[in-house]
Design brief:
Layout (H helix, E strand, L loop, with lengths): L3 E4 L2 E4 L15 E4 L2 E10 H5 L13 E6 L6 H14 L5 E5 L9 H9 L9 E5 L15 E5 L4 E4 L2
Organism: Streptococcus gallolyticus
Protein name: Muramoyltetrapeptide carboxypeptidase
GO molecular function: muramoyltetrapeptide carboxypeptidase activity
Length: 160
Amino acid sequence: MTLFQVKSGQATLGYDPTQPRHFMPTEWKIYNAGKASGTIIGGNLSTFGLLRGTPYAPQVNDYVLFLEEAEEDDYHDFDRNLAAILQAYPNPKAVLIGRFPKECQMTPEILTYILDKHSLLKTIPVMYDLDFAHTQPLFTITIGAQASIDTDTLSIHIEE
């Protein structure tokens, strides 16, 4: 995959669609096992956090948090933002975390260290390295839809 190319003295960012693309296999991981269902809320953690305290913040009872970070945020930002979101939304039925871009410098050890700080996350289903976020491949999350999570089958079912 060509990430940068120069043609006729002009730089073009992006990939060259004429070149073959090679996708690496992905593997969803489990921090804490279980099954849960609820209304999907969340998104980019930094952006979602801006809704706290506003009339636009989701007001739901049974919810599943879908969280992810962008390239410009590192693992320190994730650590701080996760703590804030779990205070604003203290009773999630499950927490699902998208794959971190390489720029975040997140490692499995750092993520485990961060998640271990929150005893709640040891009592509900938590999966990470999922195929949503600012990475490829990705699937689209429908905020406000109902989701069922089963870590035994590594499945997420989003209902219409």
